[in-house]
């Protein structure tokens, strides 16, 4: 019962480097989401995919791109990492009218 | 602009006491209000949720109270236990909107002292 799996769990990047965060779910959920969590600010939505083949911007999309590779996988890419993108990134998935299920996060530090 | 405001930021309570966390929202279109519990190193997990057609929902030691006219809702943890020590987030969404996007409060770190 894996649920939502995120890789890697930890990563350190230098400013300007690029990186892709991976997320996969095995619950046959239609919708997938990427959030970032910063102290005192809760979780903020970066991008979401309501269904396979669609993606939309959330509250804080600048500096990120996403790809809904198939129904199971939703990746988040940082093309040119900046220190302001140091955060904990969470992927989630859901079906309509049901709660979102979260992975355990990727802790990303950008120096 | 934070559409869901949560207070307090942190809370210390003795074992057996009551923990109370409050949230206020601005968007009257919100119609689903979940609470998530998060332990260190883990993702948030759904604890309890409420729709605005009811004023209170109880599940075990956890109760949500909802005041639609005041646009406020709260989480009460009765008989708090050390295992309840975690960060709690309130959230809100429009459940029929595409993707059911959640807007989160800033979180409350709860410490239950034995």
Could you give the topology of this structure?
The complex is a heterodimer of chains A (111) and B (114).
Chain A (H helix, E strand, L loop, with lengths): L3 E4 L2 E4 L5 E7 L5 E7 L5 E7 L6 E2 L6 E5 L5 E5 L8 E8 L6 E2 L3 E5 L1
Chain B lengths: L3 E4 L2 E5 L4 E7 L7 E6 L6 E6 L5 E4 L2 E6 L4 E6 L8 E7 L10 E2 L3 E6 L1
Parallel strand pairs in B: 2-11
Antiparallel strand pairs in B: 1-3, 3-8, 4-5, 4-9, 6-7, 7-8, 9-10, 9-11
Protein model, in words:
The complex is a heterodimer of chains A (111) and B (114). Chain A is mainly beta. Chain A is 0% helix and 50% strand. In chain A, the strands form two sheets. In chain A, strands 2, 4, 5, 6, 9, 10 and 11 form a seven-stranded mixed beta sheet that branches. Chain A has a four-stranded antiparallel beta sheet with strand order 1-3-8-7, with no helix packed on it. In chain A, a hairpin with a 6-residue loop joins strand 5 and strand 6. With 114 residues, chain B is mostly beta strands. Chain B is built from no helices and eleven strands. Chain B starts with a strand and ends with a strand. The mean pLDDT of chain B is 93. At the A-B interface, strand 4, strand 5, strand 9 and strand 10 of A face strand 5 and strand 10 of B.
Instruction: Tell me the CATH topology of chain B.
Output: Immunoglobulin-like
Oligomer: heterodimer
The biggest beta sheet of chain B is recorded as: 6 strands, mixed
Question: Helical amount among residues of chain A, as a percent range?
Answer: under 10%
Largest interface: A-B, 28 and 27 residues
Approximate helicity band of chain B = under 10%
Query: What value does the Rg of chain A take, in angstroms?
Result: 13 Å
How many domains of chain B? The number is: 1
Radius of gyration of chain B: 14 Å
Number of DSSP helical runs of chain A: 0
Q: With helices defined by DSSP (H or I, 4 residues minimum), what is the helix count of chain B?
A: 0
Number of strands of chain A: 11
């Amino acid at each position: 019962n894996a649920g939502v799996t995120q890789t890697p769990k930890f990563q350190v990047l230098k400013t300007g480097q690029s990186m892709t965060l991976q997320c996969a779910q095995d619950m046959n959920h239609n919708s997938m989401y990427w959030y970032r969590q910063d102290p005192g600010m809760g979780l903020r939505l970066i991008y979401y995919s309501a269904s396979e083949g669609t993606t939309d911007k959330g509250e804080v999309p600048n500096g990120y791109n996403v790809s809904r590779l198939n129904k199971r996988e939703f990746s988040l890419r940082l093309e040119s990492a900046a220190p302001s993108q140091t955060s904990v990134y969470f992927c989630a998935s859901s079906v309509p009218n049901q709660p979102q299920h979260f992975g355990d996060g990727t802790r990303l530090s950008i120096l | 602009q934070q559409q869901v405001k949560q207070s307090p930021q942190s809370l210390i309570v003795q074992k057996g006491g009551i923990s109370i966390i409050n949230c206020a929202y601005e968007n009257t279109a919100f119609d689903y209000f979940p609470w998530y519990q998060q332990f260190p190193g883990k993702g948030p997990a759904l604890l309890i949720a409420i729709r605005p057609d009811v004023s209170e929902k109880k599940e075990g030691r956890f109760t949500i109270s909802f005041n639609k006219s005041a646009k406020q809702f709260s989480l009460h943890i009765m008989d708090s236990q050390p295992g309840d020590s975690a960060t709690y987030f309130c959230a809100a969404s429009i459940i029929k909107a595409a993707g059911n996007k959640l807007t989160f409060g800033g979180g409350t770190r709860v410490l239950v002292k034995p």
